[in-house]
């Protein structure tokens, strides 16, 4: 088999489209955000990506049916007041090795180019390693004009954060996208403790994206999920297991929400 | 050398055959099961697989003779009341890296296609991390019809298990088999503590497979092995080394049985 | 994408040029040294190297702009009294795997050959794992004549150091350069504790290189950085946190200087 | 560069030759043995192997001269009473990854076939993890006739040892040699504590090899080295640092001897 296999069920015809990435990562922020977005704008799946760079694994749904781990591509046309076409990338895993990350990202960008995408918008979480009272949405972009444009709609650009750069698909889509394909790119990251899946941070990045796309979104489901997480974390706090917090971050109840 | 080398001593002529996988894994359940099956139905070896994805190692038998680590392919025709043709895959190791797992599985599936296989049946263990009083046989399948069919013959399909999917050859044979080759697939997993090789769990999965193939099997040898393991575990329990259990799981006596 | 991509903005015309390497490493000595050198001689960037062997990461500058991690190539002509042409290699990371190290080094050497380089001069640090009162500059070279030549200008060749050879780009550029391209090569290493970035060690190797190139350099900026580091280490010492030293080596203030 | 580069300075004309392997490994037994053998029979180097599967490193000799890490090939004709031609393989490292081990071994075997080798004789150590009073020489071979032949000249074939097979070049040369090239093969392993380089174990395997080749060898130098090691280990024992033994195994004095 090829190292990366993209199976497309449809070839959407798009113009000046934006590639939005929300793969699993810190606090599952990016994935939560794009999943909510897709529900709201009724996106259509058109592609699946399999790869030797993913874990050798099938997932099993509640009915016992198996699904090979993959990444998935969706599209939606004429989104928001400016009628932008969108491609959305999400999935079960990111590539498991640095080389796999590069090859997967390059393959997606090559496809994006064929589909007339000219911009990348990657979503993620930024772990502060502690509870964050008023989570900001941090940003980085491939050029200064985009930085200013994003500042105007509420994104924080900070000298300190992200101090070590942006690792993984969110970073590479900007880096390779700019250098190899000439795409402009923005990455926005919701601040999060990093201890559990964080629907609140997901709402934060989604609000920025909606503002950018001049799009009205309801956040009800995300807010419900955020409440569930809060209840669970309060329960834990009540049990006075402050040092057990990190351990609980692998708690199935909490991660199930993602 | 090629990354994967398949040496065939014979090209069996089969029709509508089933590929049965029992490679080493949790509790060595799958391997124990297919080894017992092959004894009972008198299967014939026709292929050996060498690969750079296996450990760089020869095994040494009791007489001092070396054998390069490999996977092995066997066949048996007209098995059970429905006269099904079988290919059986077992071996010393699974691929050691995710990429190796993908490539090995894909190579086997390609060969399986050439040999007119249209279904995959993978056998394994499911570790509960604690002693299991009445071990169930858990299942997953590539489509709902198979799920129902397997439920009818005693396989448990559970929302909770396997919660994290199926990792390794057992999972990939279903996932790649379905997506790349159009094979239907079933995976059945015998519940086991995961502490030592588990002939009882192997008997469990084999009973299901026999039922599926309308095949009569004697389980004497598996039961003898199960007794050996039980005696050894009782001995350990008598020594009141409850917390030493896990450590003993690497005990040569216990694993030797596999 | 290719495993290694070299993007050149200019093809400098050089003769009998020297390839000088200062990639990140022990005490960041080599990178500090070449960065200072390039400021002093006003070197011109002409190439960038991207690779799947680097981390999948973009760096973010203080204004929020992203840059794909890379290695960079610079040149400067007619340097020093002997008017030598120089190529300088520096960057954000070395290759992350042994195989990546080999492939990256070989690619750079192939390019170096095309640009008429006939000698490699690699700069690095040599960690003593303890504070070094009077740091020496240690050396190794591809042939005895170069060893003697370097001894004459103050490089120490020691039977004990480096006892385990030279690992990474500094070593491979000499090894592959000699065996595959016939280049002569010298590696000089500034002794350093290895606890933090070490501008003093960088000055040490740079003085040798300047002597070799009969080049006058000012070391003001390096000395300023050395002072900053010393102040910080004294502060730590004052806090009587002797055993915290190693921990502090990851202190952002200290490493920021690099 | 190719993944493996073999540079040959001479193509020896041999007939029915034996490939003898003594690469670094447990107690450095194999390497010590072949190095001593080569001194005694005056072997001639004819090839060097470089590879991306070796560490990215140059070694530095006592005069400061660098050498890219490699494996080396030597030959000697008409050795012993039966006038056997020999190829000897030794070097600085074995391949660092399983895949590298396979590719390196296969490359060496392909060259060996071109040079009319029809047998592999690999030498190594077998770690018992404790001091061994009367070290045996353990063996394994590709077929039963060779097992009996080696038993007759003092090799021990044991059901227990090596229980987990033979890992690395010594094992793969037999396994791939037999399966892919049709070579017969013998591996003999000197029992050793595994704590330090073991010239005594090296003498043990060399005596067997000499017997097999009907060759007279002096063991003076190996015995001198064995004495050095013994003195050092006694010194350690005197210091009553029984539990420090393992730590001392990385003592430079002891390993320097190898």
Give a structural overview:
4 copies of one chain form a homotetramer. Chain A contains 8 helices and 11 strands. Chain A has 258 residues and is α/β, with parallel strands linked by helices. Chain A has a single domain, classed as PAC-like subunit (Rossmann fold, 3-Layer(aba) Sandwich). In chain A, the strands form 2 sheets. An 8-stranded mixed β-sheet of chain A has the order 1-3-6-7-2-8-11-9, sandwiched between helices. Chain A has a two-stranded antiparallel ribbon with strand order 4-5. Chain A is globular. The first copy, chain A, starts with a strand and ends with a helix. Chains A and C meet through helix 2, strand 9, strand 10 and helix 4 of A and strand 4 and strand 5 of C. Strand 10 of chain C pairs antiparallel with strand 4 of chain D, so a sheet runs across the interface.
Which two protein chains have the largest interface (Cβ within 8 Å of the partner's Cβ), and how many residues from each?
A: A-C, 35 and 25 residues
Strand line-up across the major sheet of chain A: 1-3-6-7-2-8-11-9
Uncertain runs of chain A with pLDDT below 50, 5 residues or more? 244-258
Q: Indicate the overall shape of chain A.
A: globular
CATH class of chain A: Alpha Beta
User: What kind of sheet is the major sheet of chain A?
Assistant: 8 strands, mixed
The helix/strand order of chain A is EEHEEEEEHEEHEHEHHHH
Structural class of chain A: alpha/beta
Instruction: List the domain count of chain A as a whole number.
Output: 1
What do we call the CATH homologous superfamily of chain A?
Answer: PAC-like subunit
CATH topology of chain A: Rossmann fold
User: Residue-averaged pLDDT of chain A, rounded?
Assistant: 91
Helix content of chain A: 25-40%
Give the oligomeric state of the chains in this entry, treating copies of one chain as homo and distinct chains as hetero. Answer: homotetramer
Radius of gyration of chain A: 18 Å
Task: Please give the number of β-strands of chain A.
Answer: 11
Strand residues, percent of chain A? 25-35%
CATH architecture of chain A: 3-Layer(aba) Sandwich
**Could you tell me how far the N terminus lies from the C terminus of chain A, measured between alpha carbons in angstroms?**
31 Å
Specify the number of helices of chain A.
8
